[in-house]
Design a protein that fits this description.
heterodimer; A: alpha/beta; 10 strands; 41% helix; globular; B: alpha/beta; MetI-like fold; 5-stranded mixed β-sheet; 24 helices; elongated
Chain lengths: 265, 511
C-alpha cells in the first residue's frame, strides 16, 4: 500500500508539470493492439495516442469495440498482442492494482456501491490508498461541491435515495477522488433523461477545462461527442477508422462518420 | 391440557433437552457456516468446481438421517454415538444450503458494481470483503436460516444415537404409545424451528443491501452472530475436554424402557453403595451399547445372555440358561476384555403375542396351537426380530408357520399398537413388557423351546472394574433380585402409568 502511494504521487506530479519520461505530451499510447476472446476479434490493430489534458471521445455503435478499448487502458482486459502504454509504461509492466488506482473510472449507471453512503462511495480510492481519515473527509466535501451536490444533504445518503443525475454526479466525484491524472468514462450519462444529460454534459465540459485531466470518454451519442471532445475517435467493427478534431470530423468523408453526422441534422 | 401439564411438571427436563437440542443445532449450523461460506466463495472463483461440489452436497442431503447416523457409527469408532455423530450429520445436512446460497449470493451481485470495484483498483480480496460479501450477506444468511430450520427438525432424530435433545421425548413417546410425550418433544422443536426462522429472517432483512441498516449496525449483527457460534464451539470442546475426569462411570442403555429401567437400577445402586458419580448414555439402538462398551465410550450396561450369545458372538442358539451364561462370560472375557456380573434374575425372552379376544375365542395356549390359524393372519415384527439368528427364520421353521403375507417389519413399540388395532394379528414382543397387560394381549407358550434364554446381567469393562472394584460388589448385590413379575410391573409403571423412571426405581430399590 505504502509503495503504491509513493509511486502514484510521483507520477501525479509529473503529469501536472507536463514533464515526463521522454513522451511528455502522450498520456496513453496504443501500439498495434489486438484482443481476441474465444477466436473472436474484439479489437484489431489499434494504434493511436491520447494526449495529456485532452478529452478523447470514442464514438461508435454498440459492439464496435469502444468499451473494450477503454478496458484495455485500465487493464480490466489485457491485449492478445501489442501493447498499451500508460504514462510511458506498458500495462503489462504496471502493477494492475496500482494502475487502476492511478486512473479514474466512471461507468454507466455509475456502478455505485449500494451498501455504501455517498461519502463512503467517493472515499473508496482514497481509503484504498490509505489516506488519513480527515484528509479523505475533506476531499469528499470538496468533490461533492465540485459536482454540485450539497455535502450536508448528500454525504450520508445511500445511492438508492438519489436521482439518476445525482448518482452520476457521485460517480464522477468518485472517479476524481484521488486526483488521478487520467479518467476513463464509459457512457456515464447514457441512462439519463435528455435534459439532465445536457445539463451534466455542460457542467462536465466546464469541469474538464478547469481540471486539465486526460479523459477518454466512450459514447454512442454524436451530440455528446461534439460537446465534450477535443478529438473524436470513431470505431467500427473493432477498428479505429477515424481520429479527428470535431471540426475535421464534421466534414469527414468516411461513410460511418457521415452516418453519425447525418443523424443530428 | 395434558401437554401443558406435562411441560410444566417436567420443566427442568424440558429445559435441559431444549438446551441440548439448541446446542446440537448451533454447533452444527455454526460449523457448516464456518466451512460452507468459504467453500461457496471458492466456488465463485473456480466455477468449474461448482457443479460437482454442489452435486455432492445435494446427494449428502438426500441420505435419510437414520442411515447417515448408522453410517457414521462405524466410521467414527469410539465417537460413534452421542453428540459427535449427531453434530457431524447435522453439519453435513447444513452444508448444502450454506454453500449454495453463498455461491448464488455472490454471483448475484450486479456485474457493473463488481467491475466498478475492480476498475477502482480493489484487489480480489478487497472486492470480496468490501463489495461482494456485504452485498451477498442477506442471501448467505438466508442459507444459514434454511440450514438451521432443517437442523432443528433433523436433530430430533439424533436422540436415536444418544445425542439427547427434544427427540428423546418423541422416541420415548413412540415406544410407550404416549401421544403427550410425542407432542412434548415435537411442539417445542417446532416452536424452536419457527423462532429460529423468524429471528434469522429479521437478521436477513436487516442485512439486505440498502435496508437502511448502517454499516455499524451490520457489524454489530455479524459480531454477535460470530460470538454466539464461537461461544458454542468453545463450550463444545470444553464439555468434550472435561468429560473424562473425576471418579465417574457411564452406564449405557438401549432404546427401550426395560433397558432404561435396568440402567437406572444399576446407576442408583452404584451411587447408593459407592461414592462414584454415574452418568447415563440412554437410547442406544441396535448393538450400539456393545460397540460403545468395547470402545470405552461407556463403562457398563445391562445385556441379555441370549442377545450376547447369538447376536454378538454369533453362536447358534441353545436353550440351557446356565450353559449360555457360562459361554458368554468366558467369550467376553477373552474376546472383548469385558466382565459379566451376576444375572439379575428375570428372563426376558421373545414373547409371541396375540390379542386376548383371539386367544380366548380360538382357545390358543401355545405357539403350536396357532399354526393352523396363521395362514389367515398377518404378522408384524420388529427389525431386531427379523434380522436375528434366533428370530424370525428359525421361528417359522420350528413351528411350521405360514402367514397370509410376508410379515411387516415395523418398530417394536408400534407393533403392539398395530396388534391392538387389528392391523396385524401376531407379533413378537418381550415377555417382561408392561404393554402386554395394558393392551390385554396374551403370550403364547414357546412349547417347542425355540427361544433361547435372555437373562439380564450387567457387563462392565475389565479396566473399569479394576479401577473401581467396589462397583462389582455393589452391583452383584442385585443378583437374582428381579423376577419376571417384578420386571413387568416396573415396565408397566413407566410405560403404562407414565411414571418417572428414577422415582419408580428408587421405590423398587428401597422396598
Amino acid at each position: 500500500m505504502l509503495e503504491v502511494n509513493s509511486v502514484s504521487h510521483s507520477q501525479q506530479s509529473e503529469s501536472l508539470t507536463g514533464s515526463g519520461d521522454g513522451q511528455p505530451n502522450v498520456a496513453i499510447e496504443f501500439r498495434n493492439v489486438n484482443l481476441k476472446v474465444n477466436q473472436k476479434s474484439l479489437v484489431e490493430d489499434l494504434a493511436f495516442e491520447v494526449l495529456r489534458g485532452e478529452t478523447l471521445v470514442l464514438l461508435g455503435r454498440s459492439g464496435s469495440g469502444k468499451t473494450t478499448t477503454l478496458k484495455l487502458i485500465n487493464c480490466l482486459l489485457e491485449p492478445t498482442s501489442g501493447d498499451v502504454f500508460v504514462e510511458g509504461t506498458s500495462t503489462r509492466s504496471w502493477n494492475q492494482i496500482e494502475l487502476r488506482r492511478h486512473i479514474g473510472y466512471v461507468i454507466q449507471d455509475s456502478g455505485l456501491f449500494p451498501h455504501f453512503t455517498v461519502a463512503r462511495n467517493i472515499a473508496v480510492v482514497p481509503r484504498l490508498k490509505g489516506w488519513k481519515e480527515n484528509k479523505t473527509h475533506e476531499r469528499v466535501r470538496e468533490l461533492l461541491e465540485l459536482v454540485g451536490l450539497e455535502p450536508q444533504t448528500f454525504a450520508n445518503r445511500y445511492p438508492r435515495e438519489l436521482s439518476g443525475g445525482q448518482r452520476q454526479r457521485v460517480g464522477v466525484a468518485r472517479a476524481l477522488a484521488a486526483d488521478p491524472p487520467i479518467v476513463l468514462m464509459d457512457e456515464p450519462f447514457g441512462a439519463l433523461d435528455p435534459l439532465t444529460r445536457a445539463e451534466l454534459q455542460r457542467e462536465f465540459a466546464a469541469l474538464t477545462k478547469r481540471l486539465k485531466k486526460t479523459i477518454v470518454f466512450v459514447t454512442h451519442d454524436i451530440r455528446e461527442a461534439y460537446t465534450l471532445a477535443s478529438r473524436i475517435g470513431l470505431f467500427k467493427d473493432g477498428h479505429l477508422i477515424e481520429l479527428a478534431t470535431p471540426d475535421q470530423f464534421a466534414s469527414s468523408s468516411d461513410p460511418e462518420a457521415q452516418a453519425f453526422n447525418k443523424s443530428i441534422e | 391440557m395434558k401437554l401443558i401439564d406435562f411441560l410444566v411438571q417436567n420443566r427442568s427436563e424440558v429445559l435441559q433437552l431444549t438446551f441440548e437440542h439448541l446446542f446440537l443445532v448451533v454447533i452444527a449450523t455454526g460449523g457448516a457456516s464456518l466451512i460452507g461460506i468459504p467453500i461457496g466463495i471458492i466456488l465463485t472463483r473456480r466455477t468449474s468446481l461448482a457443479k460437482p461440489v454442489l452435486a455432492i452436497a445435494s446427494v449428502l442431503q438426500t441420505i435419510p438421517s437414520l442411515a447417515l447416523f448408522g453410517f457414521l457409527i462405524p466410521v467414527l469408532g469410539s465417537h460413534g454415538i452421542g453428540r459427535t455423530p449427531a453434530i457431524i450429520a447435522l453439519f453435513l445436512y447444513s452444508l448444502l444450503p450454506v454453500i449454495r446460497n453463498t455461491f448464488t449470493g455472490i454471483n448475484g451481485v450486479d456485474p457493473a458494481v463488481r467491475e466498478a470495484a475492480r476498475g477502482m483498483g480493489m484487489t480480489d480480496w478487497q472486492v470480496l470483503t468490501q463489495v461482494e460479501l456485504p452485498l451477498a450477506l442477506s442471501v448467505i444468511v438466508a442459507g444459514v436460516r434454511v440450514a438451521t430450520v432443517i437442523s432443528v427438525g433433523t436433530a430430533t432424530i439424533a436422540a436415536a444415537i444418544g445425542a439427547g435433545g427434544l427427540g428423546t421425548y418423541i422416541f420415548r413417546g413412540l415406544r410407550t404409545l404416549d401421544r403427550t410425550l410425542i407432542l412434548a418433544g415435537a411442539v417445542p422443536a417446532a416452536a424452536m424451528a419457527l423462532l429460529a426462522d423468524l429471528a434469522l429472517g429479521s437478521v436477513e432483512r436487516l442485512l439486505l443491501p440498502g435496508s437502511g441498516a448502517s454499516v455499524n449496525r451490520r457489524k454489530w449483527i455479524l459480531g454477535i452472530g460470530t460470538l454466539v457460534i464461537t461461544a458454542g464451539l468453545v463450550a463444545f470442546f470444553c464439555v468434550g475436554g472435561t468429560s473424562k475426569s473425576g471418579a465417574r462411570v457411564v452406564v449405557g442403555s438401549k432404546d427401550f424402557t426395560e433397558s432404561r429401567i435396568l440402567s437406572e437400577i444399576v446407576a442408583q445402586t452404584i451411587e447408593n453403595g459407592t461414592n462414584i458419580k454415574v452418568e447415563q448414555a440412554t437410547e442406544l439402538s441396535g448393538d450400539l451399547c456393545h460397540r460403545e462398551l468395547v470402545a470405552g465410550q461407556i463403562d457398563m450396561y445391562v445385556e441379555y445372555t441370549g442377545t450376547a450369545f447369538t447376536a454378538i458372538l454369533k453362536h447358534p442358539p441353545i436353550s440351557d440358561p446356565r450353559a449360555v451364561y457360562d459361554q458368554v462370560k468366558a467369550d467376553y472375557e477373552s474376546l472383548f476384555i469385558l466382565e459379566w456380573l451376576q444375572p439379575l434374575g428375570f428372563n426376558n425372552t421373545f414373547a409371541i403375542l396375540v390379542r386376548g379376544e383371539d386367544a380366548r375365542r380360538l382357545g390358543l395356549k401355545s405357539i403350536s396351537d396357532s399354526a393352523r390359524y396363521a395362514t389367515n393372519w398377518r404378522a408384524g415384527f420388529g427389525q431386531d426380530f427379523m434380522s436375528r439368528k434366533d428370530g424370525y427364520p428359525g421361528f417359522v421353521q420350528t413351528y411350521g408357520l405360514r402367514f397370509m403375507e410376508p410379515p411387516r417389519e415395523m418398530d417394536l413399540s408400534l407393533s403392539y399398537q398395530a396388534l391392538a388395532n387389528h392391523q396385524v394379528d401376531l407379533i413378537a414382543g418381550n415377555s417382561t413388557d408392561g404393554l402386554i397387560e395394558k393392551l390385554g394381549l396374551v403370550q403364547l407358550e414357546d412349547d417347542l423351546h425355540y427361544f433361547p434364554p435372555y437373562e439380564a446381567a450387567p457387563i462392565i469393562r475389565r479396566d473399569t472394574l479394576d479401577r473401581y472394584p467396589q462397583i462389582g460388589d455393589a452391583v452383584n448385590r442385585l443378583a437374582g433380585r428381579i423376577t419376571n413379575e417384578q420386571m413387568r410391573k416396573l415396565n408397566y409403571a413407566v410405560d403404562g402409568e407414565k411414571r418417572d423412571v428414577r422415582t419408580v426405581v428408587r421405590e423398587f430399590l428401597t422396598d
